[in-house]
Specification:
The chain is of the alpha/beta class. The protein has 13 helices and 15 strands. It has 2 domains: about 5-180 and about 350-365, Glycogen Phosphorylase B (Rossmann fold, 3-Layer(aba) Sandwich); about 185-345, Rossmann fold (3-Layer(aba) Sandwich). The strands form 2 sheets. It has an 8-stranded mixed β-sheet with strand order 3-4-2-1-5-6-7-8, with helices on both faces. It has a 7-stranded mixed β-sheet with strand order 11-10-9-12-13-14-15, with helices on both faces. β12 (about 275-280), α10 (about 290-295) and β13 form a beta-alpha-beta unit. The longest helix is centred in the N-terminal third of the chain and has 15 residues, at about 20-35.
C-alpha cells in the first residue's frame, strides 16, 4: 500500500469531545498506525493546551486562536506553511472549511470535506439563537457547500440528501457512514439499575434538544419522583451548563437530576450501562455516535427519530412521534413500562469506515 501524506485541518480535535472529534481521532490514529504521515492543524480551544503535541503517534499543531471563528479566517498562512509537503488535505464542516479550501486552491492540493450535517432552514427553528446568528450560520453553511472540494463525504444518507438539496453535485458526494471499534465496547454490557434512570450524554449544542428534554423531565419526574435523569455533559459552554443548573434548582429537582462531567471512557461506559435507557432528543443528527455506542452496549434508546437517527437506531428503542414535550413525556412513560420496539442490530464498523476513506484517497490519487 502506497504511503500517503495527509493534513487534517479541523476546528476541533481531541481532547475536545464530540462526534466529529471521535471520527477524526479514530481515522488519524488508524492511518498513522498503518504507516501514513498524518498531521493535524486545529485551534487551541483552551488556553492551557500545548501548542504542539503528539497523541498516539499523531502530530497535532494547535494554532493560537481560542475562538473557532478566528480560526476560519486567520489560519490560512499556517495551512499554507504546513500544507506544502502533504498529498491531500482533509477538513470538515464548518469553521475549518474556509482555510482548508483557500490553501488547497493556492497550493493546488486535493481537498476533501466530511460533512456531518447540513441544517439549511433548520437554523431558523433551533432554540437559543438570535436572528443575526441564524442568518450568519445559514449563509456560511450555504457558502461552504458551494466550494469546489475534490469530494464531499456524507456520513449518512440524510446528510447526503441535504447536500444534494443544497445544490452540491451528486457526483461529488461520497457516502461513508462513521464507524466505531466494537472491541472497545465488548466488556460493557447493560446492567439496568433498580431505580428508573434515563441518561443523556453529549454536547450542549443548540441542536441536541436539551431544552425539550428538561421540560419533559420536569413533567415526568413530578409523576415519578423516584426516577432519575442523569446528564453527562461537558463543563463548557458555562452559560448553558449554568442555565441547566438553575432550571434544576428552580424546579426543585436536585434529588432527581444528577450531573456528571469529565469522565474517562471507562467511567462513561459504566455510567451508561447502569442506566435504564439513553435519550437522544436531537432536532437533527448527521450520524450520532451516541446512539451507535449505546446500541453496542445493549442499552435501549429513546430517539427523536430525526434525520440520520432513522438510519442508525436499532436494537431496543422508542421513537418519539414528534419532537415536542408531550411526545417525549409519552416516550418516557413507555420506557418506564418497558414498552420497547425491537429490531435487528445495525453495525457501523470503524474498519469499514477507514477502508472507504482509503478507497477515496486512492481513487483520487
Amino acid at each position: 500500500m502506497a504511503k500517503k501524506k495527509i493534513l487534517f485541518i479541523l476546528e476541533n480535535y481531541y481532547p475536545n469531545i464530540g462526534g466529529v472529534e471521535t471520527l477524526f481521532k479514530n481515522l488519524a490514529e488508524k492511518l498513522k498506525e498503518e504507516g501514513h504521515e498524518i498531521f493535524v492543524l486545529t485551534h487551541k480551544f483552551k488556553k492551557d493546551l500545548p501548542s504542539f503535541e503528539v497523541i498516539n503517534g499523531v502530530e497535532i499543531k494547535r494554532l493560537p486562536f481560542t475562538n473557532r471563528f478566528s480560526f476560519s479566517f486567520l489560519a490560512v498562512p499556517w495551512v499554507l506553511y504546513y500544507g506544502r509537503r502533504f498529498h491531500y488535505f482533509h477538513t470538515t464542516s464548518y469553521n475549518a472549511a474556509v482555510p482548508a479550501f483557500i490553501a488547497a486552491k493556492l497550493l493546488r492540493k486535493k481537498c476533501f470535506i466530511t460533512f456531518h450535517e447540513y441544517w439549511g432552514r433548520l437554523w431558523f427553528g433551533l432554540p437559543h439563537l438570535n436572528i443575526f446568528s441564524r442568518y450568519l450560520f445559514y449563509w456560511y453553511e450555504k457558502m461552504i457547500s458551494q466550494f469546489s472540494f475534490t469530494k464531499f463525504i456524507a456520513v449518512s444518507q440524510s446528510t447526503r440528501q441535504s447536500l444534494v438539496a443544497a445544490g452540491v453535485n451528486p457526483a461529488r458526494i461520497v457516502l461513508n457512514y462513521n464507524g466505531i471499534d466494537y472491541k472497545d465496547f465488548s466488556s460493557s454490557r447493560h446492567q439496568p439499575p433498580s431505580k428508573f434512570t434515563v441518561t443523556y450524554f453529549g454536547r450542549l449544542g443548540v441542536s441536541k434538544g436539551v431544552d425539550v428534554l428538561m421540560e419533559a423531565s420536569k413533567i415526568f419526574l413530578a409523576k415519578h419522583n423516584d426516577a432519575v435523569l442523569k446528564l453527562i455533559v461537558p463543563l463548557h459552554p458555562k452559560s448553558k451548563l449554568n442555565a441547566l443548573r438553575r432550571f434544576v434548582k428552580k424546579n426543585s429537582l436536585t434529588n432527581n437530576i444528577v450531573f456528571r462531567h469529565q469522565l474517562s471512557n471507562e467511567q462513561l461506559r459504566n455510567e451508561l450501562c447502569h442506566s435504564s435507557c439513553v435519550v437522544i432528543p436531537s432536532y437533527s443528527e448527521g450520524f450520532c455516535f451516541a446512539a451507535v455506542e449505546a446500541i453496542a452496549m445493549g442499552i435501549p434508546l429513546i430517539s427523536s427519530d430525526k434525520a440520520a437517527l432513522r438510519e442508525v437506531v436499532s436494537g431496543s428503542y422508542i421513537k418519539m412521534k414528534e419532537l415536542n414535550v408531550p411526545c417525549l413525556v409519552d416516550a418516557l412513560q413507555k420506557a418506564k413500562a418497558d414498552e420497547w420496539s425491537v429490531s435487528a442490530i445495525k453495525y457501523f464498523t470503524l474498519e469499514e469506515c477507514i477502508q472507504r476513506y482509503h478507497q477515496l484517497y486512492n481513487c483520487t490519487a
